[in-house]
Fold this protein.
Amino acid sequence: MAARIWIFAVVAAVFLSLPSSSSAQDLQIVNAERRIDLSSHIVKAFLTLKVENIGKEPAADMLLAFPPTQIKNLAMVQALAVTGKKKKKTYSPLDVKPTQQPDAPNDAGYFLVSFATPLGPGQTVTLEVLYILTHSLEPFPVEITQSESQLVYYRDSAVVLSPYHIKQQTTFFKTPSARVESFTSVEPANRAGKEIKYGPYEDRAAYSYAPVIVHFENNSPFAVVEELVREIEISHWGSIQITENYKLTHGGARHKGVFSRVEYQSRRSISGSSAFNGLLAVLPPRVNSVYYRDDIGNISTSHLRTGFKKSELEFEPRYPLFGGWRATFVIGYRVPLEDYLFEAPDGRRYLNFTFGCPLVETIVNKLTLKVVLPEGSKDPSAVLPFTVNQDLQVKYSYLDIVGRTVVVLQKDNVVPTHNVPFQVYYTFKPIYMLAEPLMLVSAFFFVFVTSLAYVHIDLNIVKK
């Protein structure tokens, strides 16, 4: 019995000596600088933190806190560790994962940032955090006429919400124009041109919060894709076919009154300043067979520029989009197989393509990406740098017998930062490539034999 107690004591001592998740008393933020870019309908916040370990044990990670109003609209959180100074700075990506805290005040949400190496007592580390918010600009007024500019509200805090004590901090808001109707004053606060500055504030306790509202003009295109279905069909005979089905809407202030195309065409800078009639899609290089159409048919208002690194498709819907208006269309194109399909060292084949939406500065509420593998493919698996919902389906096409495996990837609240490469691995035996040619040869041979038999067989009852 004494031996068991001694072993338990040793194990407990070893466990307690390991670096654990740091508490709010172990860390403090020496300096925090937050810059929030409000120039488009996608809100980008850049947060620079200098974190110090004031505890007695190494800290392996830290928490980032967000109010509940931002958690539901949070599209992405990234963190980098900064070392060096000025031109010799180096950036190391850190692991960021959502987490829950049992004692979270006011339903705050958390993300856990893991340090590359545990932060020892007395040591400091500088972090650069990027988080992106969608649907965070509230149009006010909610309805505008064709000739009115669009005004929006943005709600946030003058100080950084954090579970740690912050010794000094400053927050900057950058608006798209100098027209700012109003902003909440939390002294010290001032505005110069397109920038609103809050702070510096000294010695703010954990979970400090100072709500502010900024009311400003924002006529940038509020392009929101309610649903996007991208289908990538792989053919081992030389090409990859991509088909993209869009359901696009203008997510800004709703249009009221009568639309006048004459006024819109003659006074474009004044009339319909918040509307948009042109979009840009960034496509892969070496695209071919590009088409752009809707339910009516092909749309000719498009222009394609190809290059070695990317291709750009400029196109216009059939009508300009004002607040609340919708448009559906399809974009399709082909790319060479050798540019995106490779063979892994273990013999598997894998597709290396870009996730996300090709449209520039667009929010996608629901993205479904389908990778259609050749018939006979087995053991498919997808590799992505973030979490998505995955599923497997079967699709039947021409001359298919058992159907083609379809890897379905689904993600909500997608922004341009999600446009990163992903891979889909699968096994495939080359003998399956002969299945369709053999079926065609067999079919022609059967028709030939049947015709030959019909010509030479005498079916008459009476002899001639």
Summary: The first helix runs from residue 2 to 17.
